[in-house]
Amino acid sequence: MSEKEDAPKEIVGYRQQPGKLPFSRPGSGGKGKFSESTDQEMIPESQGGKLAQEWGPHRHDELISGRVVGKSTALVDSSWKVTGQAHYGDDVRLPGELIGRIVRSPHHYARVLSIDCTKALELPGVVAVATGDDAKNRFGVLPVTKDEHAMAVEKVRHAGDLVACVAAIDEATAREAERLIQVEYELIDPIHDMREGLEDSGEPIHDRGDYHIGESNVQKRVFQEFGDVEGMIENSVASHKKNWIFAGVNHAFTEPHAVVAHWDPTGRLTLYTPQQVPHYVHRALADVLEIPMHQINVHRTFVGGGFGGKSDPFPHEMCAAILARKSGKPVRITFDREEVYWVNRGRHPSRIEMNLHADDEGRICGIETDALIDGGAFASFGHVTTYYNGVLHTAPYEIGAFHYTGARVWTNKPASGAMRGHGAVNSRCAVEVGLDDLAEKLSVDPISLRLANLLPPHSATITGFRVTSIGMRECLERVREESGWNKKFRKLPLGKGIGIGCGFFISGSGLPIHWDPNKFPHATVHLKIDMDGGVTIHTGAADIGQGSDTVVAQSVAEVLGLPLDMIRVKSRDSDTSPVDLGSYSSRVTFMNANAAISAAMQIREELLDATVEITGAERSGLIIGDRRIFLKKDPAVGVSYLEALHKSQEDRGALVASGAYRTPPMGKMHKGAAAGLAPAYSFSAYVTEVSVDVETGQIKVDKVWAAHDCGKALNPLAVKGQIIGSCHMGMGQVLSEEMRYGRSGNLMNPDLLDYKIPSIHEMPEVIPIIVESNDPEGPFGAKEAGEGPLLPILPSVCNAVYDAIGIRTSELPMSPEKVHKMIEKRCREEEVSDPNNLPSPSLQHSSLQGVLENRAKEHRIRDKDRRLDEGRSDYHNGALFGLDPTIPPDEVDPRWSVRVTPEEEYLKSPRLAGSAWKHTERRHAEGQK
Amino acid sequence: MISNRHHGEPNAQRMGSIGRNVVQFRLPMLPPSDGVEWNAKVNDEEVSIIIESNAILLDVLRDRVGSLGTKRGCDMGTCGCCSVLINGEPRLSCLTLAVDTEQADITTVEGLADGHHLHPIQQTFAECGGSQCGFCTPGFLVVISALLSENSKPNDQEIKQAIEGNLCRCTGFQQIVDSVKAASDILVSGQAVSDSTLSKSDPHPGFGGD
Ligand code: FES
Ligand code: FES
After folding, report:
1. Does B194 touch chain A (CB under 8 A)?
2. Which residues does a 6 A CB cutoff place in the pocket of ligand 2?
């Protein structure tokens, strides 16, 4: 456009004098009398700043004011935590409170014949008791599998299951009353081995009516086939097969569950609870108490660690509400550490068979997985877990075929559920260890093998998941580089090893859990700004220590050009916070920050309008900097934030705005297609160095180079914290953590002494490496960083142990005694008597190595072109195998068609979990009769 | 585990504030334990209350003294969340009989800051990521404050040894160690930590001149 035609309107006297203070106005005052000039290092290239954008521009670039996003930021609620003033579940003390205790079943499986509470009620100080009769409605986190009661109705299903509860004036009385409640049981034969769960049973743990699968304890079964399943074995030149056993692990957060329930004088219930997912508790309470949702306020306290373990609506939350209703007093229930293990919801004990096939070009022509997972006594999130054990390892590699059979069974154990890395961790470990073995068989470098088989950015996986940004290649390249991989791999002395592992995880789930047919958003954020200029953010997102309050505050601060001390986040009460679906599936940063940005954008527009009105400046030339809005090319022309704010408040008062986020439509149509769908995915690659004591089998992890693609680190400090914390948790699972059940099914270690979490002495040095792939739909480009970083640590440790002593485990945790046994076995095989004389694994590259390196080089260019080219064509998994990348292969090649039920042929010799398909659902069985 | 550590305490007493006189209330069927007087200094404040002779210090601190910052993670001495300083020494309050701390000087997390001036370790825990969910934080803070008052420049090994009894499930400890080092720098340099009540940002700034 020509300067003359579009000459800026004359500016009417709104030029501020540098270094001169504006007239004060109500609400002004405080530190930082002058606006700071914008830090150009924080402004993206696309906006004329100096922030390099290797991955291209982003739709949120123009909202960057250079204030807070991308800077390491202390959590906004940290002052509360470091002064001891953060109140967690047990710290909520209401006047006149009663203490609630829960009576738990001592039996694994039994019918409850009678409960006699008379003696307990006679005890002075006991105010109320409740049993299953007081709340007969079922609940559960997933609407399709509501199978829990507040307390046992008819049956108890695991040792520790809730039978009754009591409220008394103090803990001692409540504990005494707990002992006085007499329950008569009739024992039923329990099931402890998950394999038994696959068989017909005289007394299945639950009865799903018409939908029950045979007479078995199979809660969910999945069969999926994608791609050229017939061809995969034919085309393979190397195959890997391993049968894994993974022990169950617990979240072991430091804060035991606690809850306070209080019915106020108006008859409304407030439930104070350290919950990751307050909204689903809200729904479940309404179901169980038979009151409408608006009669309940769910107040999320500070949460002392969640990791998935505080994301179900829990029976003890129902108990507190029921006791408080009966007694007319507030009731507080706090768990002993032991009780934490009784509610569990930890990672499923699993038996996974992993098969991988590679062809003569080093392509992964097939993955066959069979996963049997032990759900314990309730469904919890298990429906989803069963899918995740399969579908979440169909990327980041391009694969020729995928065959998955999965089953989740009920057993008489505390329920398994969602735990950090939900459903993906164990099977990912099996895949990544398998790839290491395949590389060994093909005599190639395992990192080269991975780099030559990656899906490109903006592609679709074999299961039809839409993947946008992918920083996998950069993660692999950076850990290879920084760890000095090429100088170390297969070259370290016996007892020292280095290993690689990768990860892929969802950044939010495409479908909300409640599956409402209407189009409710997944996240909503409200903003309110009054004349004082401070911004109040109302959000229902649950900060569980991951820093979600901080991220939402940062996002709003960035868009409005404000320092964080002007932002306050109100995220506790459902009465005042708009619904957010909760802190699970790594959805909060992605969804909630997007909602916050869209709300802040509305305020930003109003502030810009006001600035135009005051200054007469041209709107398109205005930008927002530090608490000031001004003309980019003449910063003297501008107004303070407060001036613009007061202008826009004329005649209406406080500014309010609401922003929401809902996932775009995506994915395929087959049964189960929605499981694993996410608006974006994170990627990670870790290289781990270990030392193994060949004589004792003790493993020490020395150092981890941990690269994670989180899209954009809105708060690098928190991202690093998530990466390091994930390493800690994953290391626990791979080396020492295990919920140990004795021969008769008793949990042997429900405490933190025998359930072994790594202490500071076991922690390796972790070098967090942040890769920023700038996701097009993420807030400022961000994706998740909370769960994905856990996945690679397990396989990278396993692979490093192989590099150190040449043994491959198939059982986690790798306790010293197991490793020692394997070393002894290897000694016998190698015919050496002293383990110190074992040969250390070595590698001579085959000619395939060159092929892989060339392909990786080509793909590197392909990937870069794709991520920068807005007009890119579609890319579907299968192109690497010669198919047209632009068409979904199942639409052109019948061999690639999707199958979700097994054929007769398969059922003749099914794999372990696959045998769940031998049963017919009752409704169909009856149909046959 | 059935414990009767709260035995006989009427609710009013448990909710009561420091030193309030409450009528003892006994449940007939439970063997009563004696009420004894307990005098101690908690965070520089004299406390004198009647407690049961078998009361655990953690319960007394949380339920009677009102130090809710002292956390209960396990009751078994395995997590370190309940750490407090007894006469300057880090101790697990869940494994300490309150009567054994008669006349002692007890510091909990609430006693670390000087008014609105945080202790350097509190400040750096926030800044360096030492605290995520924050539940383990009070325990770490009191233990580290004891370390730093003895040794203002601890090395890695000394830091690790000091906090080996504390579990953190969130941070993987690395940023906790970073926080200790940053706090040590503040202590050694003699810098003061600023007062959190100082004025916050002016929403109405002038143009600084670019
Ligand atoms: S509560 Fe004292 S060590 Fe855990
Ligand atoms: S910060 Fe959560 S346990 Fe340490």
Report:
1. no
2. A 254, 305, 545; B 131-136, 168-171
The pLDDT tens digits for A191-229 are 999 999 999 999 999 999 999 999 999 999 999 999 999
- Per-residue pLDDT, averaged over A592-616, amounts to 97
User: How confident is the model over A56-65, as pLDDT tens digits?
Assistant: 999 999 999 9
What phi and psi, each to the nearest 5 degrees, are found at residue A100? -100, 145
Chain A positions in Cβ-Cβ contact with residue B4 (cut-off 8 Å): 172, 175-176
Alpha helix (H) ranges present in A168-240? 171-180, 229-234
Using a CB-CB cut-off of 8 Å, the residues of chain B touching A125 are: 27
> What's the pLDDT score for residue A669?
87
Same domain, B81 and B139: no
Does A336 contact B1 at a Cβ distance shorter than 8 Å?
Answer: yes
**Number of domains, chain A:** 3
pTM (global) more than 0.90: yes
What 8-state DSSP symbol labels residue A486? Answer: H
Q: Are residues A596 and A715 in the same domain?
A: no
A614 CA to centre of ligand 1 in angstroms:
61
Q: Say yes or no: B157 contacts chain A, CB-CB below 8 A.
A: no
Whether the bond between A679 and the residue before it is cis, its omega within 30 degrees of 0, is: no
- Nearest of A710, A788, A715 to residue A551 by alpha carbon: A715
The rounded distance, in Å, linking the Cα atoms of A317 and A311 is 12
Q: Cis bond leading into A792, ω under 30°?
A: no
Task: Please tell me the total count of domains within chain B.
Answer: 2
> Residue B159 sits in a domain of what CATH number?
1.10.150.120
DSSP annotation of A747 reads B
Regions of chain B where pLDDT drops below 70: 1-32, 210
Residue B176 lies in a domain: yes
Rounded CA separation A69/A567 (Å) = 14
Q: Determine the residue among B144, B170, B171 to mutate to test chain A binding: the one whose Cβ has the most chain A Cβ atoms within 10 Å.
A: B170
Per-residue pLDDT reduced to its tens digit, A828-881 = 999 999 999 999 999 999 999 999 999 999 999 999 999 999 899 999 999 999
Q: Is residue A322 located within the same domain as residue A397?
A: no
- Domain holding B183, by residue range, is 120-189
Task: For residues A565 and A537, give the distance between their C-alpha atoms in angstroms, rounded to a whole number.
Answer: 13
Which ligand 2 atom is nearest residue A253's CA? 3
Q: Which ligand 2 atom sits closest to the C-alpha of B133?
A: 2
What CATH number does the domain containing A824 carry? 3.30.365.10
Question: Can you give the residue range of the structural domain that contains A371?
Answer: 350-511+669-856
B128 domain-assigned = yes
Where a domain ends, among B77, B108, B139? B108
Identify from A92, A104, A126, A170 which residue to disrupt to test chain B contact, counting B C-beta atoms within 10 A and taking the largest count: A170
Pocket residue to mutate for ligand 1, from B3, B56, B86, B92, most atoms within 8 A of Cβ: B92
Which listed ligand is nearest to B136 at the C-alpha? 2
Q: Would you say residue B62 lies in a domain?
A: yes
Q: What is the pLDDT of residue A12?
A: 55
Q: B70 and B127 in one domain? A: no
* Sheet architecture: strand order including A401-409: A218-227, A401-409, A364-374, A350-359, A236-246, A811-812
Identify the pLDDT of residue B15: 35
Question: Is A433 part of any domain?
Answer: yes
Whether A76 is in a domain gets the answer: no
Which of B108, B128, B148 is the endpoint of a domain? B108
Q: Are A433 and A532 part of one and the same domain?
A: no
Tell me the C-alpha to C-alpha distance, in Å, between residue A341 and each of A344, A444, A777, B136.
5, 44, 39, 19
Tell me whether residues B204 and A17 touch, CB distance under 8 A.
no
Q: With an 8 Å Cβ cutoff, are A725 and B118 in contact?
A: no
Please tell me whether residues A422 and A549 are part of one structural domain.
no
| Residue pLDDT, tens place only, A522-558 | 999 999 999 999 999 999 999 999 999 999 999 999 9
- Distance between Cα B80 and ligand 1 center (Å): 5
Q: Is the pLDDT of residue A11 over 70?
A: no
| A364 falls within a domain | yes
pLDDT at A903 over 70: yes
